[in-house]
Write a structure and sequence with these properties.
The protein is an alpha+beta fold. Helices cover 43% and strands 21% of the residues. The strands form four sheets. A six-stranded antiparallel sheet has the order 3-2-1-6-5-4, sandwiched between helices. Strands 8, 9, 10, 11, 14 and 15 form a six-stranded mixed sheet that branches. Strands 7-17-16-12-13 form a five-stranded antiparallel sheet, covered by helices on one side. Helix 4 runs antiparallel to helix 5, helix 11 runs antiparallel to helix 12 and helix 14 runs antiparallel to helix 15.
């Protein structure tokens, strides 16, 4: 099959087409010569007509190119010689010489005038082109890279190039670039597959069309874009055949904008030694083809745009890392709890702001209780996310030792102050600019901590500079809980206060960060009222309630990240819990074992009786021996079996491993081996020791008879009075 070669455009001007002025001047030459002959035949004065003949080349010099001016002048001279030298014999010899000499001189004058005019036009055109290119470069510098979004930066490059530089522009990038990653180094030897990120054409630019959907486009190895990417230099040319253009230029996957172009230019987008993709430009036949100067201009624009694209790619990578870090530090799921049903959402801030330090947590506590936590670290970025992770870990650690909310926030405040001191710059070894520019208050934070007991249906809460939570009690509208406002974490020196609230079963709690209710377009009071209105609208599930709140309150461009926790309270009635008061007498240990065994039989858990009797025996024995009245035994049944023994002593036991010949000290060790979890919590009138057993036990097997006697002996030895630790 015959192929028309791809012809590179070279400098030069094609032969101009015949213009009406050129034809008009040739006709004028003939008309003036004919009029000269007619007047001469009538015996009239003929010399005046020669003056008009000498003006014709001068007029041509002002209107026509050099070659056409020469043609008009020679035609005028030839007609003059014919008219004045041959056809008019009555004219004197001196007059003929004068007229012909004047006509020849007019040719020289017209050529000189034409050359001067063309030189002036070229100089002026060069200045105009240079000014237009500088304007285009300036526009590209100001318009491209206005955002840190890769796709938007590519669209800005296409918008700048269309209409002033090309009829159609497209930007194709490697897939890793759009994800914030770095593409594979080195040129590709085979076909190259890119993703069409942006394209614009003259009609689309005039109608402000929406950006196209991203789609892949594959360049054959011999195509112009592939060669440009392989060589790392711009490749331009013009097409003389449609089939050749289809082979050397890819078809636009989003429309006919790049199909069968008259002239095309492919420029690689390279920044910091990395090839990000290619910029493609085409012109139709009504415009001059691309030349070497156009290639240099496009290369300069592409180089500036490539730096902006690489900056956006790096920011995308940093933001993806920050979001991944943020989400990894947050709970991956909200585990089911006997106290509440909970659902949570986290929304990162707008891409221009970056991720923040908002977090939430749902922490299981002893006695089937649960803690709901929401916090916010001041600031955005990696440091805020890292600080959030440290604070969340600290809250979980403090919650595990069952501190009251106000004491927990006090300890957390001390931790934040310590972190501030650790990150505060020291003047030693640092200049003044480094000390002044250091971020001292990075770890200033707010926090709300709530602990809910499903047995008493009471909630204790304290907050440190955080917005008050909202509650929707059954049959009532939403309202904010009255919790005393404490100072933000990191201020120090001010106390925190605890509020105790009764929450009926089925109450809806909403904990949130300030990003949900703060908006630059609305005042805070309006947003808070709107939140109460939205929460008052019932929804079938908690997930739908979360989505409903976010849909109605979150703007399209969130200036701060948002954490939201919605929880519905549950209650454990008398069918799930039972308690007995015990006397301060060691004979009560056997009674406690019998009570626990009978209760487990009523609950249909006889297989758990053996382990429960051992745990109850150890806990009650040591409470009687080392504690004081009143002594209470409580069993709680839900997903697990919880055994609790309370006494009036504030002395907290600790676990230690007894030596071989010790007669005691094995009580807590036995409990720790038999229970899934165990711990101690302090309250105003004493302490409670608790142990959580699996129901039914999947890994704990009943010991053999000899082992049972040994275990019982160990338990009895643990109650001897000479041991001060369990």
């Amino acid at each position: 099959m015959h192929r028309t070669p791809l012809v590179s455009h070279r400098g030069g001007t094609a032969a101009p087409s015949v213009r009406p002025a050129f034809i008009t001047l040739l006709i004028a030459v003939v008309v003036i010569a004919g009029a000269r002959l007619v007047l001469a035949a009538a015996g009239m004065q003929l010399m005046g007509m020669a003056e008009y003949s000498t003006l014709i080349p001068v007029v041509a010099a002002a209107l026509l190119p050099l070659r056409q001016t020469l043609i008009v002048g020679l035609a005028n001279l030839a007609v003059g010689i014919l008219a004045y030298g041959i056809l008019l014999p009555s004219m004197s010899h001196a007059s003929r010489i004068t007229v012909i000499t004047a006509l020849g001189a007019s040719i020289l004058v017209s050529l000189a005038v034409c050359r001067a005019r063309i030189a002036a036009e070229r100089s002026l055109k060069g200045l105009m082109v240079a000014r237009e290119r500088l304007t285009l470069l300036s526009e590209a510098s100001t318009r491209v890279g206005g955002t840190l979004d890769v796709a938007r930066t590519a669209e800005e490059l296409a918008e700048v190039a269309v209409r002033r530089f090309a009829d159609h522009a497209a930007v194709d990038l490697f897939d890793p670039v759009l994800k914030g990653e770095e593409p594979a180094p080195g040129p590709s030897a085979g076909p190259v597959t890119l993703r069409r990120t942006a394209h614009r054409s003259v009609p689309a630019a005039l109608t402000a069309a929406e950006p196209p959907d991203s789609s892949t486009v594959t360049y054959p190895r011999e195509s112009m874009p592939a060669r440009s990417l392989q060589r790392g230099i711009p490749v331009h040319g013009q097409f003389t055949d449609t089939a050749e253009s289809e082979e050397c230029w890819p078809t636009d996957p989003n429309g006919p904008g790049t199909q069968a172009p008259h002239s095309a230019l492919a420029v690689p987008l390279r920044a910091r030694g990395v090839t990000l993709g290619a910029a493609l430009f085409t012109r139709s036949r009504h415009r001059a083809p691309f030349d070497a100067d156009d290639s240099l201009l496009a290369q300069e624009i592409a180089a500036r745009a490539a730096v902006c694209l690489d900056n956006a790619r790096r920011y995308t990578h940093e933001r993806a890392t920050s979001v991944a870090l943020q989400r990894s530090l947050l709970p991956q799921m909200v585990p089911p709890q006997p106290a509440v049903q909970a659902a949570a959402r986290y929304l990162p801030a707008d891409i221009e702001v970056g991720v923040g330090g908002d977090w939430y947590d749902v922490i299981p506590l002893s006695g089937a209780r649960v803690a709901l936590v929401v916090g916010d670290v001041v600031g955005h970025g990696i440091r805020a996310s890292a600080a959030m992770g440290r604070l969340r870990a600290a809250v979980r650690t403090l919650a595990d030792i069952d501190l009251p909310p106000d004491e927990l926030l006090t300890h957390l405040d001390d931790i934040v102050i310590r972190l501030q001191n650790e990150t505060a710059p020291s003047s030693a070894g640092l200049d003044e600019d480094a000390v002044a520019g250091a971020d001292v208050g990075e770890f200033l934070a707010t926090c709300l901590y709530m602990a809910y007991d499903p047995i008493s249906r009471r909630c204790t809460a304290a907050r440190a500079g955080h917005p008050s939570p909202a509650v929707v009690r059954p049959g009532e509208g939403a309202r904010f809980l009255d919790i005393p406002a404490g100072p933000p974490l990191g201020v120090g020196g001010l106390p925190f206060e605890t509020a105790e609230i009764h929450l009926p079963e089925g109450s809806l709690l909403a904990l949130y960060t300030d990003g949900l209710v703060e908006s630059p377009r609305h005042c805070l009071d309006e947003r808070l009222e709107r939140l109460l209105e939205v929460l008052s609208e019932p929804k079938p599930t908690l997930q739908e309630a979360c989505d409903h709140v976010l849909d109605l309150l979150v703007d399209d461009r969130t200036r701060d990240d948002i954490a939201l926790v919605v929880a519905r309270t549950q209650a454990l009635d008398h069918g799930h819990t039972v308690a007995w008061e015990l006397l301060e007498d060691l004979s009560e240990v056997a009674r406690a074992r019998d009570l626990a065994s009978l209760q487990l039989a009523r609950w249909g858990l006889p297989e758990a009786a053996f382990l429960a009797e051992l745990v109850v025996s150890e806990l009650v024995t040591n409470a009687i021996r080392y504690g004081g009245n009143p002594i209470q035994l409580r069993l709680i049944r839900h997903d697990t079996l919880i055994c609790e023994v309370s006494d009036s002593s504030n002395t907290a036991p600790h676990l230690r491993r007894a030596r071989t010949f010790d007669e005691g000290g094995r009580g807590l060790f036995i409990v720790a081996q038999l229970a899934e979890r165990w711990g101690t919590r302090q309250h105003s009138d004493g302490k409670t020791i608790w142990a959580e057993l699996a129901v039914p036990p999947a890994t704990v097997q009943a010991p053999a008879p000899k082992e049972m006697s040994r275990t019982a002996a160990a338990g009895r030895s643990a109650t001897r009075p000479r041991q001060t630790a369990w």
